[in-house]
Amino acid sequence: MLSHLWAIFLAPFQDFIFMRHALVACLALALGCGPIGVLLVLRSMSLVGDALSHAVLPGVALGFLVSGLSLYSMTLGGIAAGLAVALLSGAVSRLTLLREDASFAALYLASLALGVLLVSWRGSSLDLVHVLFGTILAVDDAGLVMVASITTATLLILAFIYRPLIVECVDPGFLRSVSGKGALMHLIFLVLVVLNLVAGFQALGTLMAVGMMMLPAVSARFWARQVWSTALAAMVIAMLSGYAGLLLSYHGNLPSGPSIILTAGLCYVFSVVCGAHGSIYSRYRAAQHLTG
Amino acid sequence: MSFSPTVLTLVLALCLAGGGTATTAEKKLNVVATFSILGDLTKNVGGNRVEVTTLVGPNGDVHVYEPTPAAAEAVRSADLVVVNGLALEGWMDRLIKNSGFKGPVVVASQGVKPREMAAGELEEGAKHGPLMTDPHAWQDVGNARLYVQNIAKGLEKVDPASASVYRANAEAYTAKLGELDQWVRKEFSGIPRQQRRMITTHDAFGYFGAAYGIAIISPVGFSTESEASAGDIANLIKQIRREKVTAVFMENVSDPRLMEQVAKESGVTLGGTLYSDALSKSDGPASTYLEMFKNNVTLIAGAMWKGI
């Protein structure tokens, strides 16, 4: 019995280095993406993550065109493109009547189109699919170090700007009245979003990276009430999704990225139905309590 | 590999002799060969007496070729058509019929002892289909000698006036093939037989493996089309360890980074690009049959040495 459990849940990671690499990458991503996702939800920017994940494409493609499948050039390109879109849309919304989400939409679509153009320009040696859906099974030492560094930096910076950032989230006017740092907080936060998306892109591909960021964060809302505890719950859900998704991919012969995100999706469905706060189940209980 | 000066002089002398007779008949023979490897062999036998048209060019896939109107026209106006046979060119019979070609057809693989392969190896998906004839006979240099003989005979029949030229060219080229064969055997001779084991997604190396004592293993359940799962990768690594494979050639797997991880973990060396069914373009590493063979053997033997 015990050996069966061992074979199912631990042996894959014991036997294969690539599985350990993938797991560590998932855990590191979960630590960084969890809190970032929660803050995105808190700021009603849930879809901005999606937009930014597409916006990094031209930078990644450019990096690829310059030096092939190189971790560093593709990462740098992705960060540059993501930041450019984030900063430009911030600037447009501040200088014109357009709201930030609208300018985000405009810029990310243009950026995505440019990316597709660049990828197809070089020809067939790298399919667009591999940029959009990277594979966590191919994460090497350099990739791990990069993901871990970005996560560490994210957590340190978040700890540093935690209070002003939250104040900016709930009451931007108040922060503006006590100090002029609102815009700065917003900017730092956007940089962190881009960094984490690029880290996720290396491991999971651009489309899947945003799933790792948003799904656990949205699910966590049903389990915790404070920002810090929600972030913690998001981290745990993301880690569990990564672990369970990898096992699913191993035993079920399924592609790894979609397995992980789909597991996170299942966590979301479960949270919506059975979560402790505001879920269907808890609302039903509360309604019964009132009538009964 | 270097050719001895005597062979070179012989070739030169024969070429000059051939040039002498060429003046009597000005018109060159139009010969159509179905794919690039056959085209190269035909050029070597025909020399300057023939104009070779290749239907499936460099880097093309002869298995899934769709004949074009231009191909039909080339076949129609040909003096001789050279095909591989062994059911490689399934599209050729219809092309010959539709084009109205009435001339002779040389089946280059005539006399080759056919090998069998699982039918599924040609098509993605089907795993263990019924056995069918393996058409990739040219991957054994011994068979290439037969190809050359058959092509020379065919050319002699349509152009008896230049028969001596074709025979001399064929002899000179056969000598080169003999040297190539020797060299290949020497390259592999240092590697113990039980360590000549390679995994490849190519289905074309059956004859090669049989001729030079190399076990060709196809990866289990590994599709080059769809995205890899953790289970697939684990199975491949297990297979490499279990079968004590020393060289892995899977350059057509979609993500090169993935294969690097596999190589690192299983301790084998990833080879480079093997050419099996087509030559490379003229600036590539396998623009002729001889070069293709040298390229493949150098890569395979090199990977095995590192893998031991």
Task: Let me know the largest β-sheet of chain B.
Answer: 4 strands, parallel
Largest sheet of chain A: none
Kindly state the mean pLDDT of chain B as a whole number?
83
Count of DSSP-assigned helices of chain A = 15
Shape of chain B: globular
Q: What's the CATH C level of the largest domain in chain B?
A: Alpha Beta
Radius of gyration of chain B: 21 Å
The two chains with the largest interface, and their residue counts, are: A-B, 30 and 21 residues
Assign the structural class of chain B, choosing from mainly alpha, mainly beta, alpha/beta, alpha+beta, or little secondary structure: alpha/beta
Report, as a whole number of angstroms, the end-to-end distance of chain A: 46 Å
- What is the strand tally of chain A? 0
Oligomeric state, counting identical vs distinct chains: heterodimer
Report the top-level CATH class of chain A. Answer: Mainly Alpha
Task: Record the SSE blueprint.
The complex is a heterodimer of chains A (292) and B (308).
Chain A: H1 2-9, H2 11-15, H3 17-42, H4 46-55, H5 57-67, H6 71-95, H7 100-121, H8 128-132, H9 141-170, H10 172-178, H11 182-204, H12 206-220, H13 227-252, H14 256-274, H15 280-291
Chain B: H1 5-22, E1 29-35, H2 36-46, E2 50-56, H3 69-76, E3 80-83, H4 92-99, E4 105-107, E5 115-118, E6 131-134, H5 141-158, H6 163-189, E7 197-200, H7 206-212, E8 215-217, H8 230-242, E9 247-249, H9 256-266, E10 269-270, H10 289-307
Parallel strand pairs in B: 1-2, 1-3, 3-4, 7-8, 7-9, 9-10
Antiparallel strand pairs in B: 5-6
